[in-house]
Amino acid sequence: MHRTAPRWLHNTADIELWPAGLLRARRNDEARLLARAGLVLRRKRDGRYLAACTADAVHPLVPALGREPGLDAALDLLDILSGSHPLPAAALAGDLPLTGLRRRLQQLGIGDDYAQRTGLPLVAEPARLAFAGFDRYRRALWLAAAAAPAWQAMRRAALADGVVLEAISGYRSHDYQLGIFERKFARGLTLAQILAVNAAPGYSEHHGGHALDIGTPGEPPAEESFEHTPAFAWLQAHAGDHGFRMSYPRDNPRGIVYEPWHWCFHRDGSH
Questions:
Q1: How many Å apart are CA 173 and CA 164, to the nearest integer?
Q2: SS3 of 19, please?
Q3: Domains observed in the chain
Q4: Which of 3, 5, 8, 39 is the most buried (most CB within 10 A)?
Q5: Which pTM value belongs to this model?
Q6: Model pLDDT for residues 75-127, shown as the tens digit of each residue
Q7: Are the CB atoms for 120 and 203 separated by under 8 Å?
């Protein structure tokens, strides 16, 4: 039987390399280039498309592409993927270094005592993530290489029992989590209020590509009411069989509010 080759998101500290076919063009000139491109360089901080990469060239989509932070690392990665760099592509399967993250945490007012208080570890971003289908909003869903097929198998098993599971979100970069904090600060929330609901940037299970926020049709996303759905009952009974477990039950020692929608894949399958 023919199997479709897996699609990957390739990661650097500042820029992601996306399969062009999974991105929506925002302008006519982008649409023409994306139709020809294999990969697109995408800025992690705000999702801006920086360049479209065809077989013969890198086509800028922003002014002054050469001054873009992290561009050299992204182009080196592109060379590796194309085979023109001496490192094999298999060398890309590890994690990114946690460079600069502690400085950014200090800027938010989050010190080393946060890890001691919560027991949460720093979570590195994978150097690449596997395409795991689409989420509720038809956005590409990225998960770690082992978590992606486990999620797809769990969805199929639930559907066979008449239960529909939807991904609300999967992998999130450190930059994405920092953006959550910045937006909530702008709304007037305090650091303590934000940390009661969101793990600090660098400490979220979503960074590693193993965590999913799960919903079901007709239910609002990330609400405690999810615990009253057949989907939640099914997860309680069967998620462990697929390597997933709920990370933040009531009165959890991490100090995170109860999140019946947040489930994390554990390679050992323990639950």
A1: 27
A2: strand
A3: 8-92 (no CATH), 101-265 (3.30.1380.10)
A4: 39
A5: 0.91
A6: 999 998 887 666 655 556 799 988 778 888 988 899 888 999 888 999 999 99
A7: yes
